[in-house]
Amino acid sequence: MTHPALQQDLLERLRRVVGVDAPPPPPPEPEPEPQLDPNAPVVQRGVTAAKRLAKRLMRRAIGPVLHEQVTPLSAEVQRIDAELSGPLNPRALAANIESLRDEVLDQHQLSANFELLRGEVLDQHHLAVNLELLKSEVRGVQNSLEELGRALAPDVGLAGARMRFAELRDRVNTLDRRFRAAGQQEVTGDPPGPPPDSPAGGAPIAGFDYIAFERRFRGDSAEIMERTGERYVGLLADRGPVLDVGCGLGELMELLVAEGTDVIGVDTHEGMVREARERGLDVHCDDAISFLARQAPASLGAVVAIHVIEHLHVDQLVELLELAATRLRPGGLFVAETPNPRALAVLGNSYILDPTHVWPLHPGLVTFLCESAGFCEAELRYYSPGEQLERVDDPDAPAWVSQLNAVIDRINDSIFGPQEYAIVASTKPG
What we know:
The chain is α/β, with parallel strands linked by helices and 430 residues long. Helix content is 57%, strand content 11%. The chain has helices at residues 4-18, 42-85, 90-152, 161-188, 210-217, 221-236, 251-258, 270-278, 288-293, 314-327, 344-353, 363-373, 400-414, and strands at residues 242-245, 263-267, 283-285, 300-306, 328-339, 377-385, 418-426.
């Protein structure tokens, strides 16, 4: 049995090695020193002293041995403690198991989300395939329509198909009117009227179907009627009687009649005159100069000529203006609309396209001719501006940008300016 002091020392060392923080057990009570009996014999006292010395010597001899034995034991205790506090610790293992369980649940949720996403991707793929098939079908239809458009209108394609159909319809109607007129002449023996393809006030061109040409290139009739009404109905509505020179089918006349204005039309195309009459309009098949010459002086409130004067020679235009000035009452108006040759894009495109145009009429020339014919005032109004070049509008731009804008303004005015202009001339008020 180990001495109590030695046991206490070993326990203290083990506690230090293991790291136990629990309070140490109470120290053993000290072993009472044996007291020498003074009455004991000398031999007995010597034996007692020898025992104490032997104990001290034994402690000194056994201490190093115990240290050598305890040190490995302490290391083993530390290793066991490290293992218990590491991953093999039950608490740590439980925490790891819970974390792993959460990860497994997350992986399961991710797998479910992936399946949903996979389904959506498949749906998107199917939609993309269907879209490509639909696009292919649309391209096929578009190609077929473009081929049809080129067949109907080789010069403009599908965009001009509607106008081409309108042109064909008008040509059929024209042929029908000519057929009926020829039948009427055969029955009644009436002489034929003016050449049917003659522009209002101008000379006919042999073999040229002017009406079919006009139908193709003048644009949509409904839009032209709306635009003409916006420009001139308010100006002419209270100035009856109004003479519409080159009235055609009478679109402007119809708008003025709807406003309660007394209006008379004159045109050289017999078929158009007949169709306008069928619509209840007062239209005469005659040229404007001859018709004006038969009117009484100061009997008209206004004379209007929409895209007519460019078909006249200068001497015809001078005569028309002089007659209009005398047949208008005081304060009467002469209104003429014509292409604007100051815009070079117009002069090189729509104006030169029409072979019945005689001469481009500069606004300054028409103003001069009106003043020379006796009109006291002449106002120019410009319409239908072309595609304008954009100016540079930047407050932080360098100074030379102002010069660039000035050049752009001149280009817009001389090339892309208004496509049409109208002159509004008035006689002296009474």
